[in-house]
Amino acid sequence: MSKNKRMDILEAALELFAERGYDGTTVPTIADQAQVGAGTIYRYFANKEVLVNSLFQECIQQLTNTLMTNVPPAAAPIRERFKHIFFRISEYAGARGQALTFIASHSDAPFLNESSREMFEQFLDLIRGVIDEGKEQGMICPLPSNALIAMVYGAMVQLFNMMKTGALEETPGLLAQIEECCWNAIRVH
Amino acid sequence: MSKNKRMDILEAALELFAERGYDGTTVPTIADQAQVGAGTIYRYFANKEVLVNSLFQECIQQLTNTLMTNVPPAAAPIRERFKHIFFRISEYAGARGQALTFIASHSDAPFLNESSREMFEQFLDLIRGVIDEGKEQGMICPLPSNALIAMVYGAMVQLFNMMKTGALEETPGLLAQIEECCWNAIRVH
Amino acid sequence: MSKNKRMDILEAALELFAERGYDGTTVPTIADQAQVGAGTIYRYFANKEVLVNSLFQECIQQLTNTLMTNVPPAAAPIRERFKHIFFRISEYAGARGQALTFIASHSDAPFLNESSREMFEQFLDLIRGVIDEGKEQGMICPLPSNALIAMVYGAMVQLFNMMKTGALEETPGLLAQIEECCWNAIRVH
Amino acid sequence: MSKNKRMDILEAALELFAERGYDGTTVPTIADQAQVGAGTIYRYFANKEVLVNSLFQECIQQLTNTLMTNVPPAAAPIRERFKHIFFRISEYAGARGQALTFIASHSDAPFLNESSREMFEQFLDLIRGVIDEGKEQGMICPLPSNALIAMVYGAMVQLFNMMKTGALEETPGLLAQIEECCWNAIRVH
DNA sequence: AATGAATGAGTATTCATTCAT
DNA sequence: TATGAATGAATACTCATTCAT
C-alpha cells in the first residue's frame, strides 16, 4: 500500500497522458493504473482538468528545478551554459519516465490554464536566457530566439521520445555527440 | 456549395485534429466545420478511426509527393539533396494548413493502423536516404540515423508549428538561415 | 410513435417529479417513462435543471392561462371573482395530471431560476389581486394578503393532492361546498 | 462539544431535509452541519433511510405529544378543542425550527416506512377526532373529514412555511385571527 | 445521396457506505 | 467511540453511430 495516493495518481496519469493523450485517457483507467478507486481521484483533484494542470505544473516545476541545479555562473562561457541546459533536460528526461513527452505533447493544449502556460513560458525563458546571451556575445546565430529555441527544444523532444520508444538506443557518448550537434545548429560558424 | 464533400470533411478534420487532437474532436464538430450533416461523414468513412487514418495517409502521401517533386539526381551533392528535403517539407507546411502539425502530433497514436505507420516510415525513409548517403560520403556525422532524423525532423516540426501559431514570424531569408542551421547540426565539422 | 418528443419528456418528468421529487428522479427514469433514449432528453434540454425549470414555467403558464380564461369583469362582485379563481385552479388540477402537486412541491426549490420564481409570483399575484380588492371593499378580512393567500392556496393544494392519491373522492357538489368553505375562511363575518 | 451527537445529527438533518429535501441532501453535508464525522452518523443510524424515518417519527412524536398536552376535556366545546389543536401545532411550529415544513414535505415520500406512515395517520387522527365530533354536534360542515382536514392542515402548513421564509411576519394577534379564519372555513354557518 | 434526430454505450463525477486508525 | 479517507455503484451527461425521411 502506498503512502501517498496523490503521487500514485499523478504518476499513473503521467504515463497514460504521455501514451494516449489527455482526451484519450479515461479517469477510471487512471484509477486502475494508480490502484485506487475512481472516486479517490476526486478527493485529490476537483476534476480531470485540474488533474492535468496539476500534473503539468508539477512536471514543469521539476524540470525547472533540475535546470536550476548546479547552474554555471552567469559569467561562464555560453558553451558551458548550453551544455548545462542540454544535459539537465536530458537528465530529467531519463529520470522521470514520460514527463518530457507529456509536456511536449500537451503544452499547446486548450485545457491548460493560464498558470500552466505561464510556467511553461518560464521554462522556455531559461533556454532563452542562454540563447540571448549567446547572441549578444556573437557566439550564437543572430536569428529570432524562438527559432533557435524551436530547433534545440524540438530536436531534444524528438530525441528523448525516440529513446523512450526504443527507436533510438542510448549508447555511451551518444548524448555528448548529440549535444555537440545541437550546439552546432545554433552557433555562429 | 462544394463539389467534393469528401475533401471538405478531410479538410475540416485536418484543422480540428491539428488543433484539439483526434480524441478531443467530435464527429459532429467535424460535420459542422465541413458544413455537412453528421451522417454524411459516414457515407465517406466507415467510422472515425477510418477517417483519421485516411486523413493521415492522404497527408503523408501529399508530403511524400511533394518530396518527390523536382528531386535532385542521386548523384547531386548531399548538401543540395538536404536542401531539397528541407525546402520541400517547408513548402508543404506552408501550403497545407496544419498538415505537418497534424502528422507530427498523431504519428505515434495508437489508433493508426499498420498502413498508416508504414507510410510514415516510408516518409522518414526519404530523409534517411539522404542522411545515410551523407554519412557514407563522410559529409554527415556518423551517428545513428534515427538520431539525426530526430534532430532535423523535430526541429522542423517545432519551427513550422511556431509559425502557424504566430510565435515565429516568417521573414525573407529566415528559412534559408534555419536550413543552414539544421544542416550545421548534422554535418561533419 | 409520438409526434412531439419534447412533450413526451415533459409529461414523463411531470409525473415523476410530482411523485418522487426532482432529486429523487433520475434522468434515465424520465427517458424510460417518456419512451425515448437518455440522450434524446439532452437534445431538448441542456441539462436536468433546465428541464425542471422549463417544466415548471410551462405548468405555471398553463395555470395562469387557465386563470385568465373567462375572467369576470373587474367590476364583478368579489365573490364571483373568487369563485372564478377557485374553479379555474380546480379545473386545471383536474385537467393536467399532477401539475398542481408538482408546482406546490417545487416552488421553493433551490434549483428554480429567477424566471421560474418570477412566474410563480405572478401567478400568486392573480390571487392577490382579488384578495386585495376584496379587502378594500371590506368583503375580505383585513389580514396580510400573504396570510390569506396561504390559507386558500394551501388548502387547495392539499385538497387536490388528496384527490389525486385517492384519499378524497370527488363527489358531485363537493367542490362547490369546499369553495364555500375557502371563501368563509377569508371573508368578513 | 455536544453531549448528544445523535441529537446533533437529527437536528442537522431536520434543517437540511426541510430546506433541500431528503434526496437533495447528502450524508456528508449532514455530518458537516452536525459537526461530526461522516462515519459517526452510521453509529447512530443504519443508513440514510433509517435516519429520515427516525427523524420523521421523532418529529411526529413531538408534535403528537404537544397536541396531547393540556388537552381540553372531551366534553369541552368543539370550538375550544379546535383552538387547542391550532395553537398547539402553531406552538410546535414555532418551537422546533423547520419540523412542520419537514413533515409536510416528506409525509408522502416513498422512502417512509409503514411505521412512519402509521404515526402520521395517528397525528391526523387527532385532528380528525375533533372534526368528527364537531360534525356530529352539527358545529362543523358535513363534508368528508379528509376534506376538512386538508383545508385546515394545508392552510397551516403553508402559513408556517411562509413565516419561516419571512414571507409573512408574525405580529401580535395575527395567529388568533388566522385561527378564527380556519375555524370559519369548516364551521357550519 | 444527404440529413440530423435519435440512440445507448461510454465517460466524468457524485455520494452512501465502509473501515483502518 | 469517533473519524474521514477510500471505495465503487449509481447518476448526469456526451458522443460515435444509425436510420427514417
Q: What's the quick description here?
A:
The structure is a homotetramer. With about 190 residues, chain A is mostly helical.
Protein described:
With 189 residues, chain A is mostly helical. The first copy, chain A, folds into 2 domains: 1-45, Homeodomain-like (Arc Repressor Mutant, subunit A, Orthogonal Bundle), CATH 1.10.10; 48-186, Orthogonal Bundle (Tetracycline Repressor, domain 2). Chain A has helices spanning 5-20, 27-34, 38-44, 48-67, 78-95, 99-106, 114-136, 145-165, 174-186. Chains in contact: A-B, C-D. The interface between A and B is large, with 42 and 42 residues. The first copy, chain A, binds a DNA duplex (21 and 21 nucleotides) through residues 5, 26-28, 31, 36-43, 47-48.
Keywords:
189 residues; mainly alpha; 71% helix; DNA-binding; Tetracycline Repressor, domain 2; homotetramer
Describe the SSE topology.
The structure is a homotetramer of 189-residue chains.
Chain A: H1 5-20, H2 27-34, H3 38-44, H4 48-67, H5 78-95, H6 99-106, H7 114-136, H8 145-165, H9 174-186
Helix pairs in contact in A: 1-2, 1-6, 2-3, 4-5, 4-7, 5-7, 7-8, 8-9
The structure holds a DNA duplex (21 and 21 nucleotides).
CATH architecture descriptor name of the largest domain in chain A: Orthogonal Bundle
Q: Count every beta strand of chain A, where a strand is a DSSP E run of 2 or more residues.
A: 0
Radius of gyration of chain A: 18 Å
Secondary-structure element string of chain A: HHHHHHHHH
Oligomer: homotetramer
Largest sheet of chain A: none
At the fourth CATH level, what is the homologous superfamily of the largest domain in chain A? Answer: Tetracycline Repressor, domain 2
Termini separation of chain A (Å)? Answer: 57 Å
Structural class of chain A: mainly alpha
Helix content of chain A: over 70%
Residue-averaged pLDDT of chain A: 96
| CATH overall fold name of the largest domain in chain A | Tetracycline Repressor, domain 2
Provide the CATH top-level class of the largest domain in chain A. Answer: Mainly Alpha
Tell me the β content of chain A: under 5%
Number of helices of chain A: 9
Most extensive interface: A-B, 42 and 42 residues
Low-confidence stretches of chain A: none
